[in-house]
Amino acid sequence: MKASLKKWTEDYGLFLLVVLLLVSGWEWAVRQAMIPSFILPAPSAIWGALIENKQLLFEEHLPATLKEVLIGFGLSVIGGLILGVGMHFSRSIEKVLYPFLVISQTVPLIAISPIFIMWFGYSIWSKIAVTILTAFFPIVVSTYD
Q1: CA proximity to 138, closest of 105, 99, 96, 111
Q2: Spatial separation of the C-alpha atoms in residues 75 and 135, rounded to whole Å
Q3: Is residue 141 located within the same domain as residue 75?
Q4: Are residues 134 and 64 both part of a single domain?
Q5: pLDDT, tens digit, 9 for 90 and up, residues 69-93
Q6: Residues 75, 48 share a domain
Q7: Region class of 104: left (phi > 0), else alpha (psi between -120 and 50), else beta
Q8: Burial letters for 28-54: b for 16+ Cβ neighbours within 10 Å, e otherwise?
Q9: CA angle at residue 118 from 114 to 122, to 5 degrees?
């Protein structure tokens, strides 16, 4: 037990010390009014807001967000694996689809999100489309490689 604690401290102790110093400096800077709290709230204010709004955040919004992410990522994995394997085994599929994959990564998500909302409405599907667009390309390319 003691050896594993020592190993863990050696591996992560310096990191935790730096994180503690950064968070403490952040808290101090906000309390000294060096950083306006409406731009960057203090860590204690963020923690307080999390506790105050825990029902809204963790019981309502978290399940909805997880549902969107899991559906979008699941569809990305299925489609990405199929397309990546298809591109690996068929040079024709690769020549046709790879340029579209590269082009899809040149358009910023912030620019295409309103288009998804217009297409799918303000429903779960517009959010899933953004998730798919984010995850699909790396999965296809990793599978293809």
Answers
A1: 105
A2: 9
A3: yes
A4: yes
A5: 999 999 999 999 999 999 999 999 9
A6: no
A7: alpha
A8: eebeeeeeeeeeebbeeeeeeeeeeee
A9: 85
Spatial CB neighbours of 119, under 8 Å, sequence gap ≥ 6:
126, 129
**pLDDT tens, residue by residue, 25-46:** 999 999 999 989 899 999 999 9
Give 76's contacts (C-beta < 8 A, 6+ positions apart): 131, 132, 135, 136, 139
Q: Which domain holds residue 131?
A: 59-145
Q: Are residues 122 and 80 in the same domain?
A: yes
Task: Based on the fold, state whether residues 65 and 42 are members of the same structural domain.
Answer: no
What's the pTM? Answer: 0.71
Least confident stretch, 7-21, 35-49, 50-64, 104-118 = 104-118
Cα(100)–Cα(93) distance, integer angstroms: 11
